[in-house]
Every structure is written in C-alpha cells, then in structure tokens.
Amino acid sequence: MKKINTDVVVIGAGTAGLSAYRNAKKYTSEVLMIESGVYGTTCARVGCMPSKLLIAAAEAAHQIEVAPKFGINVKPAEIDGKAVMARVKHERDRFVGFVVEAVDELPEQDKLRGSAKFINSHTVQLDDHTQITAKRFVIATGSRPSYPGAFNNFGDRLVINDNVFDWDDLPDSVAVFGPGVIGLELGQALHRLGVKVKVFGVGGGLGPLTDPIVKDYATTVFSDEFYLDTDAKVSDMKQVGDKAELTYIDKQGKPQTEQFDYVLAATGRVPNVDNLRLENTTLELDERGVPLADPHTMQCLDGSGNAPIFIAGDASNQIPLLHEAADQGTIAGENAGRFPDVRVGLRRAKLAAVFSDPQIAMVGASYKELEKQYGNCGCFAIGEVSFENQGRSRVMLKNKGHMRVYAEQGTGLFLGAEFVGPAAEHIAHLLAWALQNKMTVPQMLDMPFYHPVIEEGLRTALRNLNANLKFGPDIIKHCLECGPGA
C-alpha cells in the first residue's frame, strides 16, 4: 500500500474540482486531485453543451415550420436524424477535448486515479493501492441522474439524459418523465425534430418555476405545442419486446396504453457522496447523507466548527449550475489552501435559465421564497407584463411570455423575477446585474431602453412594479411610452 502525505486533496476533476485545485495552488504547491471516472465536465459531456446543440438543431427545424406565417413558403423540413446526432456528438467531443486538454496540462504528479473513501477526517484510501493523508480536503464529486426504482421495469428501453447524446439516430418516439429543466429542454427539442414526444410530471411542477401565474401560463404554452401533463397518473410500466409500454390517464380522464421507443428519465439528480464513507468523518450530514456546509465559505460543518473539509459544485446539493460550481470551487479551493484562514467568498446573484422556446428564467429570490420570507404582510410588491402584445416580440412572432418582477415595499429594492418569454436568457442577465448591485426599481427605470427591443417589455413590468410600490403613476394602457411593453 502506497502512502502519501500532502496539504490539500481535491476529490473530483469536474468544473468545481478543477477550480478548487487551481485556487488551492495559490497557497500551497502540495495539492493532489483525484478522479475516478473520465475527464471532462458534466456540462461538456452530458449537460449544457450537448443539450444546446440538440436544441439548436430543433430551432432550425422550427424556423422552417413557422416561415409561412411570415409569408415565406418553403417545403417541409426533412430531418436527417443521423446527421443531427453526428453534429451533436462531434461538437460535444470538441468541447470535452478542451477540458481534457486543460487537465493534461496539469502536473502528472498531482493527478491520481481511483475511488476515494474516507478513513477519517484527514485520510482517504484510493481503491486498494494508495492511502493519502492530507491537512485539508475538497469534495467535488458532482452528481448523477436519479429515478424511481419502478422505472427499471422498462429494461434497456430506459435512458437518462447522459445516454441521449450517444444516440446515432433519432428515435421515432420518446416518453419523457420529469418536466424540469432537462426534461423540458430535451422533450421540446426532440418534438421539434420530428420525434413523437409525451412529457409526464408529478405534482404540477414545470421547470424551476414557483410563481403560480407564470407557471400556469408556461404550462399552457408548452401544452399547446406538445403533449404535457405536469401531474400525470401513470401505471403498468414495462418493456414489451423492443418497446417501452405504459398506461396513463389522459387529460380527458381516459386510460391510454401506449408504446415508445424509449423512456427518458429526467426526474432529478443526486450528489455523488454516498460512496465516500463520510460516516467515518466528523461531518454533519443531512437526511440524504450530504455534508452540511456554509454557503459563503463552502466549509463543511462539524462539532468543532473548524472542519478541514470543504465541498463544492453539484456534490454540495446547493445550486447545480456550472457558474455556481466554478464559484464554489474557487471559494472552497482558496479556503482549503489557506486554512485555517477561512474567508467568505463572492457569491453572485442567483441566475438560472431554461433553453426552451419560449425560454424560462429565474433571478434572485423566487416567488416561493418571498412568500415564505414576507408571508401575507404585503411587504413585497409584484409587477408584471405579458409579451403577447409587446412590439418587438410580435414582429418576430415570438410573442409568447409572461414576466413577474418583485421588489421590497418601502425601499423599492429589487428582489427577483420569474418569467417565461423571448430572450429570457439575456433579460435575466440584466436583472441579475441590477440585483447584485442592489438597485431599486426607480434606479433600474433610469437605465436606457432602446426602441424597438424586447427589453421594453421588462421596462413595462418595472413600471407596473414601480406603480405598485407607490413610487410612480399607473401605466396608461395605450401610451406608446408606458405600455404594454412598447
């Protein structure tokens, strides 16, 4: 058994792990990084990048479909599934290659392969060949898809989003379980690429939305395009030959039995911490076995209040987004490197986007969080706008959307937003910058808005919010400058 002593060990070489490694290196040269799987981040291999490649192909097909509405008549699109998937995989591999190249550039002596398990808070064992004692650790082991055990009844007809990007061709039909971010993006993309898709959910949720007005609007819009039941009743799940068969109650209340080429389980992800033997450490764990951690320092909690273990990225079960993983990795790595000098790191304004069409975005505090924080005291106000009559949106035939923005009564401080609509990914950035700079709604309205742009819809929502805060007048319905979204 080989034995190693070092200052810092980073477990995991994904986005968070690489960031933690580089930042720990600022304070000590003795940093090791352990990886048990293939190099290349979740985002590059099976997440944000390949999914956007599939979505881009779907958008190209959709533009041909809607062209006649502009008076442009074209032949129906002929979708070459093999060509679509070939481009997805080729570009995916290119993105992964950049990550692998970055890992290859790291010193060989700093990279170890194998599965790490804690013996105690200062020691891990790497498979059956190496024991490493370190002064500090960073857990950056990522996450993996999770689904109910009953889905195993579908046999090899069951896939997760990781599998989709290895297809050589598009299937004829797919049942998607889980209308969250992954299920909604992939389900709509496959539908627009000619695949028969039905999306099933439980409990009425859609994407990350918590505002009931926005959620109901979005559910209606997506249901108009493809079969979507956010609170489905499904039974008799099984594999029949080379098909997946299931029985469900349709939206008219009638039982239907249908077969699909595949069932895509997009029902969530779980942190990869269950095989680390964290019970051998002094860390405090939640009900799922995930270490509790300070979100500002990424230091794990234990009885001493000064644990030598930090956590970052999807493993932390906090905000599973690439930019958050990188930020958490930076904080965890710096604090592990300079321990015991643990400092608060920069946590940016909350920002999330779903690349559906129309897009969904969340900024800052959600409606659900504000309801919990403020209750029914009327301490926060809401402004809103529909994009159905917004000028630039109608010009582009992208006029589906509804936005709700929130601010604190009295101060006018902007708190957050939930919305579905065109260019949501871009508008969300403007709002996140305003939130991080602690701007009030009147200050936001002092910013420039060009004409005609989709962002004028945001201005209308802010003006409505300003009026509800009693800082400004009500919107005049037919005034070009005031509403509805110019």
TrEMBL record:
Disulfide bonds join 43-48. Binds 1 FAD per subunit. Residues 353-461 form the Pyridine nucleotide-disulphide oxidoreductase dimerisation domain. It comes from Pseudoalteromonas maricaloris. It holds the Pfam family Pyr_redox_2. Keywords: FAD, Flavoprotein, NAD, Nucleotide-binding, Oxidoreductase. The active site is at 451 (proton acceptor). Belongs to the class-I pyridine nucleotide-disulfide oxidoreductase family. The keyword Oxidoreductase applies. FAD binds at residues 52, 141-143, 314. Its EC number is 1.8.1.4. It comes from the Bacteria. The keyword Nucleotide-binding applies. This is Dihydrolipoyl dehydrogenase. Residues 7-329 form the FAD/NAD(P)-binding domain. One of its GO terms (molecular function) is NAD(P)H dehydrogenase (quinone) activity.
